[in-house]
Amino acid sequence: MASELYLMEVGDGRYSILLCDDRGITQMPALTPAETLIAFSELDYTDYRKVVRWLRDEHPLFEERIDIPVSDLEDFVAKAILLTPDLYEIDPVSGFVVTDILLRTLQTEDDGTAMFLLTAGQAILRVMEEPLRVQNYLRNIMEITFDGTAGSTPAEQYEKPKASYADIARICDPARLPRQEEYLSIRLHNLMELWILVLALYFEQDNQRICRCGYCWGYFIPKTKKVTRYCDRVTDGQSCKQRGANLARLDKTSEDEALLVYKKLRDRMYSRLLRWQDAPPSERSKLIPMDYEQYDQWSENARLAREEYVQGKLTAEEFLRKIDTTHELTSYEAGKINLPDGPSRWQQLVARDFRFDPERYFPEKMAHLNLSDPDPQCQILTADDLRREAQKGHQSLKEKYGK
């Protein structure tokens, strides 16, 4: 019997994943679509990811050279096979699928070309990376779908991926689900198919909704249909609900209103620069021009004005007039300005492509020199530093305040 993967409806809005092979049928615990999505998005692949990364970046099979010894491929295959039990422990479903695809990949016959060993290794590596890749895709889709949608129904949440990921939204459209009187049972061919189906089943139902906790940014299922901003996870004896409510009050009173407007205006200018740089020349007529020179001029002018304001040399109104060189503001009374937050750099990256992978996008280390500082010093920024910088303006309260 060939290995087969099924999703089977068991009743009460719950579904079970079936793993079928020569050894028999393994039925995974029955969960609702919402529970299933959250569980997969939270799986911790850290140790597995480290080994796969080592295989990709350090294994001698992928060194640049003219001749590749067969022993390198044999060693690579052995290490990949030894890794599958570890994957099973973390995620039995992915372990089952990866093992099946890996065994079929290993049956590929040597075509006699000089590149066979390398292409065979790359194919195996891609198989081993599949759970990491699919989890990353799903996390991006969930971020787009559930960020800022507290109180929305699943059908309303579905409009978010429709706007950002039209192709993904099309294939997880609940209207495409088969209609039948009997319980649903569908055979899947890969992990992405499975999670797209679970998404479609989530959007179809209206009994549970997924929300994102404003404190920890974890996903949760509220107990009622009321707008719920925090989950019940507990850290150091306090729930996210308690911590979130306290920090939200601090969040509203922690900054000078004029400086908040300055930050929003700065983020808007940066977003405008990115849109201008990324747009092909044929589409720039639809955008407000903002090249690097214009952005640097605005930034330097705003920096100097901010210094004068902080030192008490400018009133709030004078400060805002000075930085509003593009006439964005409708008033110069700080408390009366309604300037919506622009998307953070992180939000733009995620919205642009569901395949966005922070591990590949942000380098492990990068030297940074801020020439706008009065006394510029070279800093070494890690991937986490770069990620936090990209998320500024839109991040969890826990990340923002570090507590």
Largest sheet: 4 strands, antiparallel
Strands side by side in the biggest sheet: 3-2-1-4
Termini separation (Å)? 53 Å
- Separate helix tally: 17
The number of domains is 4
Q: Rough shape?
A: globular
Count of β-strands:
10
The pLDDT mean sits at: 89
Strand percentage, roughly?
5-15%
- Which class do the helix and strand fractions yield? alpha+beta
Relative helix content: 40-55%
CA radius of gyration: 25 Å
Oligomer: single chain
Structure description:
It is a single chain. The chain has 403 residues and is of the alpha+beta class. It folds into four domains: 1-209, no CATH class; 213-254, no CATH class; 255-342, no CATH class; 345-403, no CATH class. 51% of the residues lie in helices and 10% in strands. Strands 3-2-1-4 form a four-stranded antiparallel sheet. A hairpin with a 2-residue loop joins strand 1 and strand 2 (14-21). Helix 2 (46-57) packs antiparallel against helix 3, helix 2 packs antiparallel against helix 5 and helix 4 (92-106) packs antiparallel against helix 5.
